[in-house]
Structure formats: structure tokens, C-alpha cells
Write a structure and sequence with these properties.
globular, six-stranded antiparallel barrel, 3 domains, 24 helices, seven-stranded mixed β-sheet, alpha+beta
Length: 746
């Protein structure tokens, strides 16, 4: 009975979200709604039908996973399964996605079963030692794959709930903007946008929670009419800052924005309705969206050309979590019911990922959370790779602390799906050791001739390659809009060494370490190679280059009798070198010298000259310092000339006194002239806080294809190889020049 009710609920949720299902946007676009008919079929209402299908599927899975095959039988099985997967992936529909997931689980689990039962050394030697490490890494990857399929199999795609027409029924809201060491230039637009939220003025209060206790912030707060809140200490960092403000504020709902996350005016209109509809709802989370590139995007020149590191989480994973009532609180761009937050003791302070831990406490008490995947705020990404690494270290350590002090898998109060969603979130940050193992595993054969997999090369190929192919095909199908194939491995390679130690230490002693604040709004004043960050990459790169050389010798001379094994390890080493050179490319920091980031946004605008002449045009981009305008025709204005620029939002006009900075006849760049606070408030209202501000950024990436993803990573690795060779050439040249100079002086 419960199974039938559960399936019925899934059908209802599916109907609600089917129009926006990412599978319906798959690149082939072939008309196939077989999935709809299958899910809505009346056969599922027959008694015992769901259980019968589940039993048949389980028995078939056990048979396909465990039945022993010869080399040729395994090859034929892989060929049939692989060909079928590559054929049906061209079609749209949820049923096709489910079939691809089922096939991937069969093939990958069959590989793991084979590894565990037939590929271990019988004696304690190098083969067993290195082989044990590899199988642990593979088991980790398989478990993440399996739970990840479950977590994202059915994204909910929640929509906003309309508010009642009677505004007296709307709840009061407090806006918390925590800050510690960020400059006022970063915090100011967030505060101005928060003040401009579409909400009754008597039901909205804005608070700057200033843990830096700065007079500049107090004066600014007084000048714009918001409340400046300080405390006498900095205990528990951001969590303590918010908790200290709770007793002195009174809004029914609390909206929290990191000080660089600028909300759109529609934020409350889009989110509050769910609190009125669901009385058990404790928190609504919206995506974190960034107007500036992260270090991967900036240093690789990929900004807005491909999904960034966070888009998978905010584009897919959180929607998948929402299906299972496991949406995580992410610390910003979220709305929380005050009484629920107070019931769990405020923001969690036991770990440094106070946001996810707070959501866990709410879920333990039976409250629900929601995810609304509509961008309602935009912020700044980390400026440098070192800052990015520091931020991820904190996240990794915090999730490891939760695993240690409040494990969601073992504790009370959670459903099984919630436990799995939290487990996958925690396990994700334990990839440090497995990733290092994968990057060094072939070296055990190159250096010590250790056979980490006790099987012939052709057997390894017919078991391992189908596992990798099916996993990539299924993940590309599910994640293709939000993560390109093989890019996750570049991200993990860049961070693996740095999260390895913090996660391990946090599991052993969760109280060690301290909270580090991620700085925003800084600049990178010169191009440079970050040697300090790159040391682990260079070390592993050097080992793999040495292994490559030894492998070539083994292939033609030392181990020519087992050339297949040598060739597999050589190919694996070459793949690792590709990832490592791609990671090195990220360590080449490029300049970022803008105090105000230039944001691409097409808006209707008008130029008004001093003689009264006007010209309609569109903006190309804007910053807090000025606009770039695309002109439909030549406009004869010179640099330094004064004019007015009008920006339109609906039927409202915002006018700004400006000075021409540059004009080439097609693009006019202007800077603002003597901007006062009233002008600045209009600028924020016309740009950052528009309800539709970030909609044109959505869906701009091409859907992934695995081979295309491989090509992208390969091209980046060539860039890293070329840049590093040039850098080494410069150092060698300087070295010999210094020797020559010393000799001449002698």
C-alpha cells in the first residue's frame, strides 16, 4: 500500500514538473513521451504490481551482476549493453533516463563484484598492498555513483506559490547581512538592494551584522536607515554573529544574505508563499549565482562558456534533494522561519559548515525544507585559486565534522532518503584520498611492477571500460546541463591534496582547526604562477612523467612479454598527466584589477545629449562605475563630454548624469558623474535588483557530450603544458643569465 502511494506521489510530482524536466531539453530533441505514458499507466494501480516489478528487477540485476562470463562472453555482454545505451540515449523522456541509470548500475556493480571476487593477490606483497588501496578508492567512487543516481533521479523543479492579495496576511521579515572584514564597497549594494525588496515597509527590516565593529559601517547604516548590529566578541564566527542578533530582532521570517550576495527585488515575493502553504516548512533555499568568474573560469578563460563548479549542486543536486525533503541550507540567499530556528538553538555552532548542520537539525525534528531553483540573488566568486582552495577546505572540514559529531546516517529523526542525501554530501568531500590513489595507482606497476589488479589486460579492459563508459553516459544524460564530462576530475585534482588532511583530522578530532573567512572583493594585480598552491600538482606530475618514461622502457624492453598490462598503465598515466596539466593551467593566475566587476546585461537604455537630442540603445554591460552601450547608429560625442543615460525597468525610468569615457561609433562607454546616494540607489534598482536580472544567464551553456568534455579538458591540458614549459624556459634563461653575469663580474 505504501509503495503504491509513494509511486502515486511521484507521478503527481512528475506531472507538476515534467515540462521543465531537463531530459526534455536533451540535445537531440526527438519527440518521445514514452516516459509519461509509462509512469501514468493504470497498470501501476493493480495490487502488488509495483512489488512484482521490483522483485523481477532485483532478481535480474543479481543475475546480470554475478553470473560468471568468459572473456568473449563478457566482451559480447559489454558490446550489447554499450551499443544499446549509446542508441537509446538519443531519445528524450524520463523512462530512457531510468533505463540508462539501470544499465549503468548493472555494469558498474558487475565490475565491482568482479574486482572483489576475482582480482586480489593471494599473498601479502606489493600487489596486495597497492591493490587494496585501489579497490577502496573504487568502492568509494561506486558508492558515490549509486547514491548520486538516487539523489538526482527525480528533480522536483518546485515553482513559486502566489501570495494572498491581502498584504496584512504577509509575515514580517528581517534581513540579516553578516559581515566581518569585507570593504563597504562590497556590502553597500547588498544593503541597498535589501532595502528595495518588494515587501510592505512596515513588515521589512534590514540589519547589517558587523563583526568588524567599524565606524564606517555604522555611519553608512545611519545614512540609509538600516540597523547596525555589533557584539563584543567574534565567537563562532558567522553562526555566532547571526545568533547574537536573534534575541534583538522580531521578524517571523529571517532572510540571510552573505554581504556580497545582492538580492533581486522579487526575492520575498518568490519564496514566502511556500511558508504560508506549508506550516511544517522551516527553510527555503535559492541558488547561489555569481556575476564574477571563479578561478577556474577566469584563469582558463571559460566564464559563461561552460557550467562552473557550483552549477551542478545548485542546478541539479539541490532539486534532487528537494524531492526527498533534504534541501540543504547554504548560508545565504535563504529564508528561515524564526521559531523553527530558535527551536534548534539558532544557527549550528558545533561545526564550521554551520548552514548544512542547521538544516540537519531541522530535518531531525521533522520539519521540511524547500529549494526554489530560480536565481534571486547574485554575488562575487572567490578571486584567486588560493582563496578558492581555502573556502573548499572549510567546507570539507565542516562536512567531516558533521560526519563525526552528528552523523546523519546513524542518528534519529531522518527518513532513509534524507540519510542517503546527507551521506552523499559528506562523502563528496572525502574524495581527497581516492583521487590521489587514482592519480598514482599506475605508478605502482611502473616503479615496483606491482599488479594492482590480478587479471590479464584484456579482462581488465572488458570489465573496466564498460563501467567507465556507462557511468559517463548516464551522468552526462542527467548532469549534462550543469556539468561537462571529465571536468569534475579536474576540480577534484586541484583540491584533493588540500582537503585530504583537514577531512582526516576532522574525523579523528573534530575540534581541531579554526573558521576561515572567504574574502571577497579583492584584486589580482599581476599575472603569476602560484607555486605554493601548485607544489602537490607538480610533485604528482613529476612522478607520473617519470612513470611514463619507465613505462615506455617496460613496453619495449623490460616487460615486453606483458605488453598489454604495460599499455593499460601507460594509457592510465597519460590520462592522469592530462588532468594534472589541466590543473596546472588553473594555477596561472590572470589579472583582475577591476574594483567593480563589469556585468554583462542587455537592458533598454537612452542617451540624452546636452542639446536635447536622444538616441535609444541597449546596454552591453554595467558596473558600479558606469555603462557600456551598444549604439544603433553613429553618435558624435567625444571623450569628456557630459550627458545623461536613462535605463528602463518596465514603465519606470532611471536617469544618471554621466561623462563619456570612450566612443568608437558602435560602443559608447560612460562613467558616472558625481553620483550621490540617491543615484546609487537608482542604479541598484535599475540593474542588480531587477526581478529578471539574471534570467538571460540561464540555459546559455551547450548540453554536454562526453567526447566533447574530454576534448575540452585535453585542450586545457595542452594550455597548461605550454604555459608551464614557457615558465620553465624563462626561469632557465634567468638562471643562466645570472651565472653569466657573475662570471663577467669575476
Amino acid at each position: 500500500m505504501r509503495i503504491r502511494e509513494s509511486l502515486s506521489g511521484l507521478r503527481e510530482r512528475y506531472r507538476w514538473s515534467s515540462k521543465s524536466n531537463l531530459n526534455a531539453q536533451y540535445r537531440y530533441g526527438l519527440p518521445n513521451r514514452l516516459g509519461d505514458k509509462f509512469i501514468d499507466a493504470e497498470i501501476w494501480s493493480l495490487p502488488g504490481m509495483v512489488l512484482l516489478v521490483a522483485v523481477i528487477g532485483a532478481l535480474l540485476s543479481i543475475f546480470l551482476i554475478s553470473v560468471p562470463f568468459t572473456l568473449h562472453e563478457q566482451f559480447f555482454f559489454s558490446l550489447v549493453f554499450g551499443g544499446l545505451a549509446l542508441y537509446i540515449r538519443r531519445y528524450v523522456g524520463t523512462l530512457i533516463t531510468l533505463i540508462l541509470i539501470f544499465m549503468s548500475l548493472i555494469v558498474s556493480t558487475r565490475y565491482i563484484y568482479w574486482r572483489l571476487t576475482e582480482t586480489f593477490s593471494a599473498t601479502f606483497d606489493f600487489d596486495l598492498l597497492f591493490g587494496a588501496g585501489l579497490i577502496i578508492a573504487e568502492l568509494y567512487a561506486w558508492l558515490v555513483l549509486v547514491i548520486g543516481f538516487f539523489q538526482t533521479i527525480w528533480p522536483l523543479k518546485r515553482k513559486p506559490v502566489p501570495l494572498p492579495e491581502d498584504t496584512t496576511l504577509w509575515p514580517s521579515v528581517d534581513i540579516f547581512i553578516p559581515s566581518y572584514n569585507e570593504p563597504l564597497s562590497v556590502v553597500r549594494p547588498t544593503v541597498i538592494a535589501a532595502m528595495a525588496l518588494d515587501w510592505p515597509r512596515d513588515k521589512l527590516k534590514v540589519y547589517i551584522l558587523d563583526d568588524g565593529r567599524r565606524d564606517e559601517f555604522r555611519e553608512f547604516s545611519e545614512s540609509v536607515g538600516v540597523t547596525h548590529v555589533v557584539r563584543s566578541n567574534n565567537f563562532h564566527a558567522k553562526a555566532g554573529n547571526i545568533n547574537a542578533a536573534l534575541p534583538n530582532t522580531h521578524g517571523e521570517l529571517i532572510a540571510i544574505f552573505d554581504c556580497d550576495h545582492i538580492p533581486t527585488r522579487s526575492f520575498l515575493q518568490m519564496t514566502v508563499g511556500w511558508f504560508l502553504k506549508e506550516k511544517q516548512l522551516a527553510m527555503v533555499q535559492t541558488p547561489h549565482h555569481f556575476i564574477s568568474p571563479d578561478p577556474f573560469e577566469r584563469n582558463l578563460d571559460k566564464f559563461r562558456m561552460m557550467p562552473n563548479e557550483g552549477e551542478l549542486f545548485y542546478g541539479l543536486v539541490q532539486d534532487g534533494n528537494d524531492m526527498w525533503n533534504a534541501t540543504f541550507f547554504c548560508g545565504s540567499c535563504a529564508l528561515i522561519r524564526r521559531d523553527r530556528l530558535l527551536e534548534v538553538g539558532g544557527i549550528a555552532v558545533e561545526t564550521v559548515t554551520e548552514d548544512a548542520h542547521t538544516a540537519l537539525k531541522l530535518h531531525r525534528l521533522g520539519y521540511t525544507t524547500a529549494y526554489l531553483g530560480i536565481v534571486q540573488a547574485a554575488g562575487l566568486a572567490t578571486e584567486s585559486l588560493s582563496a578558492h582552495v581555502g573556502q573548499r577546505i572549510r567546507w570539507a572540514r565542516g562536512m567531516a565534522q558533521i560526519f563525526r559529531v552528528d552523523n546523519p546516517v546513524l542518528g534519529r529523526g531522518l527518513t532513509l532518503p534524507q540519510r542517503l542525501c546527507y551521506a552523499n554530501a559528506m562523502m563528496h568531500f572525502f574524495y581527497g584520498i581516492p583521487r590521489i590513489i587514482f592519480l598514482t595507482a599506475p605508478l605502482s606497476y611502473m616503479f615496483f611492477q606491482a599488479h594492482v589488479i590480478q587479471a590479464s589486460a584484456d579482462l581488465i579492459a572488458v570489465y573496466a571500460l564498460p563501467h567507465l563508459i556507462h557511468a559517463n553516459v548516464a551522468n552526462s544524460r542527467i548532469q549534462g546541463k550543469y556539468r561537462h564530462t571529465f571536468w569534475a576530475e579536474v576540480y577534484e585534482t586541484a583540491l584533493a591534496w588540500y582537503i585530504l588532511l583537514p577531512t582526516t583530522v576532522a574525523v579523528i578530532n573534530p575540534k581541531l582547526g579554526k573558521f576561515n573567512v572567504t574574502a571577497k572583493g579583492g584584486m589580482v594585480e599581476r599575472e603569476y604562477f602560484d607555486w605554493q598552491i601548485a607544489v602537490p600538482y607538480l610533485t604528482i606530475l613529476g612522478l607520473n612523467l617519470l612513470g611514463l618514461g619507465i613505462g615506455i622502457i617496460r613496453l619495449f624492453w623490460w616487460n615486453a612479454d606483458e605488453w598489454g598490462t604495460v599499455l593499460l598503465n601507460l594509457l592510465w598515466t597519460i590520462y592522469n598527466l592530462m588532468l594534472l596539466f589541466a590543473t596546472l593551467a588553473v594555477a596561472f593566475e590572470t589579472k583582475q584589477i577591476r574594483r567593480h566587476w563589469r556585468v554583462n546585461m542587455k537592458l533598454p537604455a537612452m542617451v540624452r545629449l546636452q542639446n536635447g537630442r536622444t538616441m535609444s540603445c541597449n546596454t552591453e554591460d554595467f558596473s558600479e562605475g558606469g555603462f557600456a552601450l551598444r549604439l544603433p547608429a553613429h553618435l558624435a560625442v567625444e571623450a569628456g563630454e557630459h550627458l545623461h543615460i536613462s535605463i528602463f525597468r518596465g514603465d519606470r525610468e532611471f536617469s544618471f548624469p554621466s561623462v563619456v569615457a570612450y566612443n568608437n561609433g558602435h560602443v559608447l562607454r560612460i562613467k558616472f558623474d558625481d553620483m550621490h546616494m540617491e543615484d546609487y540607489q537608482m542604479l541598484v534598482a535599475a540593474t542588480f535588483s531587477r526581478g529578471d536580472a539574471w534570467q538571460e544567464w540561464l540555459g546559455e551553456h551547450k548540453t554536454d557530450h562526453p567526447l566533447t568534455g574530454l576534448k575540452e579538458v585535453f585542450q586545457i591540458s595542452i594550455t597548461g603544458f605550454t604555459r608551464f614549459n614557457s615558465l620553465l624556459g624563462e626561469y632557465i634563461k634567468k638562471y643562466y643569465s645570472s651565472i653569466k653575469a657573475r662570471r663577467e663580474q669575476a
